Each structure stands twice: as structure tokens, then as C-alpha cells.
Model the fold of this input.
Amino acid sequence: MPYIFDELEDPIWRMLSSVKRPSRYAGGEWGADGGLAEGKERSSICLAFPDVYEVGMSYLGFQILYNMASGIPGVRVERAYCPWPDAEAYMRENRMALGSLESGRPLSSFDVVGFTLQYELTSTNILTMLDLGGIPLKVSERGEKDPLVVAGGPGTFAPEPLVPFFDAFCIGDGELLLPDLLSFFPARSREDVLRCLAKTEGFYVPAFHEGGSVRRRVLMDLDGGFAPSGMIVPSSEIIHDRVGVEVFRGCTRGCRFCQAGVVSRPVRERSPERVAGIARDLLVMSGYDEVGLVSLASCDYSGIERVIDLLGPDLSAKNFRLSLPSLRMDAFSVELADRLEELGRGGLTFAPEAGTQRLRDVINKGISQKEMEETFREVFSRGWERVKLYFMMGLPTETMDDIEAIMEISLLARDIGRRLGKRPKIGVSVAGFVPKPHTPFQWDAQATVEDLAMKGGTLKRMAKKAGIGLNYHEPAQTFLEGVLARGDRRMAAVIERAWRDGARFDGWTECFDMGRWMNAFDSEGVDPKEYTGRTRGAEEAFPWEVVDVGVSRSFLWSERERALSGDLTPDCRVGSCNLCGWQKDGCPVLEEKNGQG
Amino acid sequence: MARVRMIFSKRGRVCFVPHVEMPALFCRALRRAGARIEMTEGMSPHPRISLGPALPVGVPALGEPLEVWIENWKEQFGGSINSFLPRGVTVLRYGVVEGRPRLSEECTAALYRIIFREGRAFERIREMISGGWVPVGHSLGISASGNWIDVAVSSPGQTGGGTIVKSLVKEGVARSWSELLVTRLAVGSWSGKSVRPLPFGGGGRG
Done:
């Protein structure tokens, strides 16, 4: 009997039959309808994630923006991810354009292509997507028919290295910026839109920038802002396969190495009722059986107990789970995790970040040795056996004593577990520290590749001897991340050169080739060490100061001084206001304190 | 508690979602429809659901079996399930089964159709078949027509589309999957002449 197989006519079927992990390119997921069920299209945006599908689909920001944009009348929203090199090669060989997952429409046919900048080492993937999507790489080469290429996400807080490739940078909370951006369409001309954007708060339009800094746009009232009621549910497994609900933005812990903690201030909480409501809606809509409470440090959420009370009974009746992706290192957090997870399930992850008390004081990671011991005792006595510990190497003022102490903590965890009659499995992950813009260490030199390789190698040997699993980040990748993180506009030529020479997926160790990058630096006459190897002067102006994130330079400098003298700065939710800059701009933490006072 | 058997088709790009991901995909769709799926016991409980013999990635299928144990089974879950499934996956039949052997025991044969994109390759294979060639050891029957060949195999858990393609590549008829469209028309038992679909309802091994 003849059957009709439309699959034979599918223009990408042959590609899907010949690449790795073809489900990445299949689309058709639950909830991915692109909005615009009826009515005329007024504007179209393609949300572009410069990494593979399974990484991009785990990013909550795009889930929120997709859901939001699809609710705006007349807006069509679709998505694109970066094809893996095998798919890219196939597409080039067969002259296929990179299109959206929803309709296959080439990137070049959208009004706006919006990238998120999550990680410095995805820069070359942006160029791959533009090029395959049929969009000229540089702003200067684009014409009226080309889309507006914009960027959002943490990378926009230091945008200069990518300026030649982006028409505009959207700086701050997407729920405020995206509707403003789309409101300028349909437009008479690119220039018209860009001129309007340049006058709108939170947009950095290099071509029409008149000096000064662009203030980050902040959604102060999360409850009053957009609440997602739908999400895209991937058909194949991704990294975070669950409903994610944001419980708060910002962080007051003040870890001095952490960029996210500075650039997302002030702390703004969602009410427990709202969190529970969103979680319920998304669980029903998605069919997931797990909801994760997402933030920079969910144990710090003041409404956590209330959310558990609100959601708990309903979830356990259905065998559903509630999870906290990040745990603070104290007994309370472990107890919380215990309430959420059944004993023996999974493992727990903690981030002491540095080996010695001295160095933890330098980075303002306020955990004491005693607290760590108590936490480990609590973990093992409550039945867990797997513990993952995150550390950094290459931190300012670090010595070999600090490095060796990383192993001492890991052994301490193991020994406490054994004493409690368990079979502890300790996994240690060590990242090379990259001083980031808008942090107290933005003035500091970064550890060299050689230094990180020596320290990583030492740790690896010690861990092997002790039978503990340890991995550390590739020092050359850490180096490149550092160069791009604090880079200036000269970096764009280097990125383009490296890309033309074949650099792709530089964040993936199997693709990364430092030689290619060194050649690119060489041909463009840029000395990368100039960006990582020197301590900057107190008065030096930085390229990223074109963005004002809301935290003052004087606060960052004073934090750096306190770091070097080993002084702790208490969490302003507990202690007094640290005058980070938000005290004059409606900081909710301060307002709550004043209200109570 | 109800043991529910479903027959579904998998068409279009969703065929590139691996077989191992299908149970989770169905569980989510069932939960959207309001069903509560029974959990297995033991250290790491998971939803009680099982699929038929592995369907290779990139193979459209017209009648794949699935069984799931549902705590609050209502007829309406079956009726509405298609409006909760992602594009390309469609439930064609469903029903409560009782007392039947496990799915893996009931699925003893499968019928593959391999469509040739290029006419010359197909002519070659047609000649080979008339000469008595069989692609795999577990072949129950083989025929050629149109621009395709139909191959019925026993032990579908071990012999699948991949084995057939390998054998075609070995014979030099095709270079890779991308020159063919491999499809699975049916999974069930061998009647002596054709692959019989799986039964529903109660009863023994009939």
C-alpha cells in the first residue's frame, strides 16, 4: 500500500539525517507557537542564542521574553540557536540559510534579531549565526533590508568588544526593554528606530551615542512586572529540564569576585503567593513534574518557607518535586534541601570558593571553617553521600597555601562523611578566576595561564592521590575569557579574525584552539596580556563605564581596599547599608528597613 | 489503576527525538491532560511507562505501541491526549488492557519501508531482491514496489532500521541514511503473511 511521506519533501531532512544530535534542529516543541495566532504581523523578532539548543533552552531569560513577546498584539517571536560545526558545514556546503526553529524563516527576514550575551566565549558563534542567517556581520555593512541586530544579557554591561557587530545593546531587565524596542516597529527606516532607541533609557546605540553612560533599566517591582504563564517544553532532554520560577533578582551577599551580584542589584523579591501562582500555572501548562526556584542564591529568599507551605502539599500529592539549584553553606540550607528532596536522592552542591579563611575573607565569602564542618555533618547525617564543591584558583593575594587548603576542605568533607558511616563521594570543580567589569577586582591582574596550569596540575595530583574526583577549567580558555571580558573595541577585529580562521564554540574544550586566537591577536596587532596581565591604576577609565549599572565606582574601590586588608563587608540585609550606590535610587532593602524603623 | 495501551504515529521532525526521550514526552503530555502516572517503587522511583522496540532516530513510524499505568484513568484522557502532544506525535488508538503479556513479549515483528530517493539505486535493489537477496538474518518477508522496499523482521528489539541500512550500505546500494527514507509501518506479531497490530482489551496471548 502506498503511503505519503511528507518527510521526503522536508528541506532539512537530509541534514537532520547526517548531523550529530539532530533533535537540536527539529523544533516543534510544546508551547513554541511563536505567538500571532491571528491578526496582522506588525513586527517580528528572532531570539538568538549563540550556543547549542540544549544550552540555550535551559536559559530562563528567553523563556520569559518569548512568552512575553508572543503576548504582544502583532508581534511574531521565534528562536534560533547556533548550529554545531557539523551542521554548519552541511549548511554551507548546501547553501542553506540559518532560519528560526519555528518557521525556518532566515534570520535576515526578521525585523529584529536579539542575541543574549551570557558568556564571553560565545562571541564567535554570534558571527556564525549572523553570517549563516544572511546578515552582514558589521553594522557599517548593513542596509535598510537588514534586521536590527541587538544584544541583551550580562555581556551588555561591558559591550565595547562587540560594538561593531550590534546596532544596539539593551541594558537591563528585558521585560522593560523588549516592549519598548518592539514599539518602534513598523518603522520608516533603520536610522529612525536607532535614533529613537538612543533616546530611550536603557539602550546603548553606539552610532548615535552622545557621550556619558547608559543607565541600566531595572524592574523594581517584580510582582508588578510580567509573570510568565507559558513556556516552551523541549521534546528532548536539556540541561535544566523543569519549570523554573524566578524568586528574586539581585544579591546582597557582596562576594567580591561576583559580577552577577553587582550588576543585578538591588535585591527585588517576588511575593511567595506570586511565585506559587506562576509555578502552578507553568506546571499545568508544561506537564513537568519538577519546579526549580531560581535566583542567584535561592536560600536567601525571605519567602522560601511560605512558598514551600503554599506549594508543598499539592506537589507531594502528585509526586512532584521542588528544587533549589544553589545552596548556601549552612545548616538551614541543608535542612531546607532535606525538606525538598527525599533522602538519598541526588547530591548537594556547595561553593566555598576558596580554601582558607584568609582568602575567603578577601573575596567576602562569609563562611567559616566551623560552618563548613557543621554543614558537612548535617549533609551526611541526613543521608546524602554525594557532595560537589566549587572553588576558584587565581584569586587576588592567593598563595600555594590557599590552593592546598582546597584539598584539605575536600578531605574534611570526605572524613566527616566516613565518620558518620557513609560512603562519601566528593567531586571538586575548580574554575580559574576572571576579574570581571563592575566588580571590586576590575582593577586587578588575572593569574597567568602558566600559574593556573601549575595550580590546577598540583590540585589534580593531590586529588588523585586522595581518590577524590577533581576537574579544573582549561587555563587558556580562562585567559581568553579574561581578555574578552575586560576588552575594548579593538577586540572586535580579533574576534572576527579568529572566527574567519575557524574559531567556533570556544567555550567547548573540544572545539577550543588557543593557537588560532594567538594568531588572531598577532595579526590584529593586539597584545592580549595588556588586558589581563596588569593592575590598573585607581583613576584609569574603563571601556565598560559606558554602562552605569547602578553601583558606584567608589563603592567598588572601597570594596577592593577592604579585600586587600581582609576586611569583611556584611550582607546589607542583615547589617547596615553599605552605600553601594542604590541607597539613593529606591533600594527595596533599605526602604524596608526604613519602613520598619 | 489502569494499564493503558496506546498506538501512536511519529511523523515529521519529531522523528529526530530519540526513542529514549519518548516516555518523558508522553508523561508530560499525559500530565497536561490531567493524568496521574503511577511511579515505580525502589530507590529512584520513575513513572511506570514502557515503549515498544527501539525506533531509530530519524525514522517516521505509523503505529508504535506504548503502555502506561495511570492512577486516575478516565476515558477523556485518551480522547484529549492529542491536543496535549507536540507536533508530529499522534495517538491513533488507546484502551485499557488487562492480563496481557508485557509489551516486549508481544512485539515480535516489525515492518519497515525503505524509500529510495534515487531511482537507480532502487532498480538495483529490486534486481537483488528478485535474485533472492535478504538484507538481514531476521527477515520474515521482503518485497519491492514503487520506489521502496518493505522488509518484515522478527526480533524487532535487535533488528531494526539501522541494521537494514547497514546492509544496504555494505551492498553499495546506498552511501548513508540521507539517501533513503527509512520508515516503520507497523509493530506487532507475524501472522505468516503480514505484521499484525497489537491487540487491545483483556485475555491471553491471542
Summary: The longest strand of chain A covers residues 386-393. The radius of gyration of chain A is 24 Å. Residues 400-419 of chain A form the longest helix (20 residues). The mean pLDDT of chain A is 94.
